[in-house]
Design goal:
The structure is a homodimer. By secondary structure, chain A is of the alpha/beta class. Chain A contains 13 helices and 12 strands. In chain A, 43% of the residues lie in helices and 17% in strands. In chain A, helix 5 packs across helix 13, helix 8 packs across helix 9 and helix 10 packs across helix 11. Chain A is elongated. The first copy, chain A, binds a DNA duplex through helix 2 and helix 4. Chains A, B: InterPro entries: HTH_LacI, LacI/GalR-like_sensor, Lambda_DNA-bd_dom_sf, Peripla_BP_I.
Chain lengths: 329, 329
Amino acid sequence: MGRTTLKDVGDHVGVSAKTVSNVVNGTGWVREDLKVRIREALVELGYRPNAAARQLRSGRSGMIAVALPDLSQPYFAELASELVAAAEDRSITVLINQTNGHADAERRISDGIGIPVMDGLILSPLALSADDLATRLDTTPIVLLGEHIGESPFPHVTVDNTAASQAATAHLIASGRRRIAAIGAQPSGPNETSELRLNGYRAALESVGIAVDERLICTVEEFHRGDGALAAERLIDSGVAFDAVFAFNDLLALGAMHTFSARGIRVPEDVAIVGFDDIEEGRFSTPSLTTVSPDKAAIARAALDLLADPSTSPIETIIPFQIMRRASA
Amino acid sequence: MGRTTLKDVGDHVGVSAKTVSNVVNGTGWVREDLKVRIREALVELGYRPNAAARQLRSGRSGMIAVALPDLSQPYFAELASELVAAAEDRSITVLINQTNGHADAERRISDGIGIPVMDGLILSPLALSADDLATRLDTTPIVLLGEHIGESPFPHVTVDNTAASQAATAHLIASGRRRIAAIGAQPSGPNETSELRLNGYRAALESVGIAVDERLICTVEEFHRGDGALAAERLIDSGVAFDAVFAFNDLLALGAMHTFSARGIRVPEDVAIVGFDDIEEGRFSTPSLTTVSPDKAAIARAALDLLADPSTSPIETIIPFQIMRRASA
DNA sequence: CACCAGCCGTTCAACGTTGAACGATCTTCG
DNA sequence: CGAAGATCGTTCAACGTTGAACGGCTGGTG
């Protein structure tokens, strides 16, 4: 009735379970003819290794956990997709968790509660800071993703958000825009993504001697399309003149673009827009979205490399980015 | 050095491991004062249950596997998000796999290879048919998602694709369109999604006495934005007149919309568009996308219900849909 | 006072797998 | 001819947990 075990196969062939194990794993010595018979029995009886027992015995699970804020956000979905693909190349199975950016969910994950013993954890924290994580209970290797990290005792993978934002803003400046709004500031709570991108924005303006007009800096609750749309509404209604928008992610940019379109504001003629993330969607929006493109596949590979690498010094891997010039700016 | 075990905690308090286990699980009898001391020790030593051992002993893992073609497609990402959320309500952990629609990946998953023994599997097959799955090795409960199913011996959750497509097409007809193109036919290989939606399209036209013009039926490789854009290009270049498009999913619709915009064709004035899936993106596209909206949260809940329900008769759950009327049609 | 029921906690074995240690046989070589 | 290796397979124990069975207490009941 139950699943076939090594012992079942061994009994069927007339050898010990361990010998079957040796054939399955290619360990030890087994005669060729016996190997053949055992392999036949393996197939005939439909043996599949019990991962739990294997893990209990060996300590390795062949699985890593990936914890992301929200899969319904394309950036994280695309990143997850890359991580799964990259892990598969290394025959690692990925277990994906959704934290919704909640601190308790992130802590539970980082403490390894409620999930099987993992060989590693890739966490993209929103709520938890490096200090919070320093006290975590679990000792499984961890790699952090994103920029909510600061001085982290853990290896992490990130893009240079300030530089990237500066480049994005500089691109708008280079195309002749002077009244550049920023959508994505988050005053409530120290959201490092938002801060760093805002810093880049300011730096770009200042480096060419444009004064930062605080009225052009729009705050948002979250980084979703709806927030971008709302921010754009408010910006228009405020009556402050602007000729470009740097949105701190693509969803905000697309939301804003939707508002502009509804309000009869032409993109890029009246307002140029640059986003951040390079999600697929921006390639097919109307108009297509100019954006900062971090190399997601490289992020995935780097994260897995850091997990695999036994040299546990806290390494920071900076992933390159490029500006994808499309129709919106 | 290693992780704290029940025995460690027991030794620390001066009781057996089993007594600690009783406290952790609320089983058996333990004096109140002892419970308190054990709980303190649990926290002090940072005990966390070993899922592998638990699973090996009890046979239950508290995890289900979800296998989807591709997370980078918003529909699947949003569905995965709903599944994870719905599973969390039932304190179930979800392990997400990506099959890329490959038959071998789908078979491996359905046979439970390479993944821990799962309490259940939710599979959205693209390549595998019901017959293929009938011979699967594994006996863990399975629920199928989507319409590539036919006469399935397994419980499955789906929307009435034909009816939904008919309703979508009818909506275009009701708004006065007569030359309605269909984007999403897939001649190569029996893709049931495509077939069913095409059937609904034909049925809607025929029911009002409009002859189906085969030149208006556009084939695509996959259901991605790029395929939709390409199909629209070809449709325009073919010179065949059309005033509306029913795209078999939102990505195709958005891709087509992108082409129309680039070619100076106005949506919905010149061409009305209806999609299928109701992904977030369509709410903020320019113009916003009218689409068939299956209730994704209901799909997630139904799938989990079917997994949990011990009555293993092959049940088909039909999920309701509605037409989301937005700007594109 | 004998017996039962409710408490409280223990020991034992088993889940399926694999590393370690140990035979046994057969070659090969000094 | 004896010893050292190579080859082939076995048994044993352990990973951490929990169901089953058991053994004492205490207090109440017939």
